[in-house]
Each structure stands twice: as structure tokens, then as C-alpha cells.
């Protein structure tokens, strides 16, 4: 049973590694593969967050709580800067309306 679980875990991890574009060393154990996949997922998440923040060029006023990036919650009533395509999606979903840069 443990071998079956190991094989299934390896199969799932290999699928995740492929989706992340990783090169996998066939000698890696399931534990090592899991660590490498987790590192790659964290790196991708960090890169995605940085890209969203860099592309943020549109001020929106939030009508509902929102998560422009993972682990970053903003509350209804806040004015934040997001990428234009995200703003457009939020307008369509009635999550936000156009906003102005807050006065400091």
C-alpha cells in the first residue's frame, strides 16, 4: 500500500512539476520532488505578485472585499491600484468602481 501511495504521490508531483516547467531529476525521492515543487510554486507565486504590482496602473474604489494578489486582502471602501485588466473585470463583477488616487 505504501508503494502505491508513493507512486501516486510521484505521479501528482510530476504533473505539478511539468505544469511549472521544471526539469526533474529522475533520482529525486518523492520527498525531494515535493520540496522542489513547493519551492517552484513559491517562486512562481512571488513572481506573479511582483508582476501584478508592477502592472498596477489603475485606481479602483472597492465595493466589496478583494484579493488583488494572494494573501493580500483589501476591504470594501478602500481605494487601491491594480492592473487595468483586473479593474475591468472587477467593474463587470460589481466588485469595484473607478477610483482616484487617495490624498496623503
What attributes characterize this protein structure?
alpha+beta; elongated; single chain; three-stranded antiparallel beta sheet; 5 strands; 104 residues
Q: How many whole angstroms does the radius of gyration measure? A: 20 Å
For the biggest β-sheet, the strand order reads: 4-1-5
User: Share of helix among residues?
Assistant: 40-55%
What order do the SSEs take from the amino end to the carboxyl end, as H and E?
HHEEEEHE
Q: How much strand?
A: 15-25%
What average pLDDT do the residues reach? 93
pLDDT below 50 for ≥5 consecutive residues: which ranges?
none
Structural class: alpha+beta
Q: Ends: how far apart?
A: 62 Å
Describe the structure.
The protein has about 100 residues and is α+β, with helices and mostly antiparallel strands. The protein has three helices and five strands; from the N terminus they run H-H-E-E-E-E-H-E. It has a three-stranded antiparallel β-sheet. Strands 2-3 form a two-stranded antiparallel sheet. Helix 1 packs parallel to helix 2. The longest helix is centred in the middle third of the chain and has 26 residues, at about 30-55. It is elongated. The mean pLDDT is about 95.
Write the layout of secondary structure elements.
Elements: H1 2-19, H2 30-55, E1 58-62, E2 66-69, E3 72-74, E4 79-82, H3 84-92, E5 96-98
Antiparallel strand pairs: 1-4, 1-5, 2-3
Helix pairs in contact: 1-2
Amino acid at each position: 500500500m505504501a508503494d502505491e501511495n508513493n507512486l501516486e504521490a510521484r505521479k501528482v508531483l510530476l504533473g505539478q512539476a511539468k505544469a511549472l516547467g521544471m526539469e526533474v531529476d529522475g533520482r529525486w525521492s518523492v520527498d525531494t520532488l515535493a520540496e522542489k515543487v513547493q519551492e517552484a510554486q513559491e517562486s512562481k507565486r512571488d513572481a506573479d505578485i511582483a508582476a501584478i504590482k508592477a502592472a498596477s496602473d489603475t485606481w479602483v474604489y472597492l465595493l466589496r472585499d478583494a484579493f488583488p494578489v494572494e494573501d493580500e486582502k483589501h476591504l470594501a471602501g478602500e481605494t487601491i491600484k491594480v492592473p487595468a485588466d483586473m479593474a475591468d473585470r472587477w467593474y463587470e463583477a460589481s466588485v469595484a468602481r473607478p477610483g482616484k488616487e487617495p490624498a496623503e
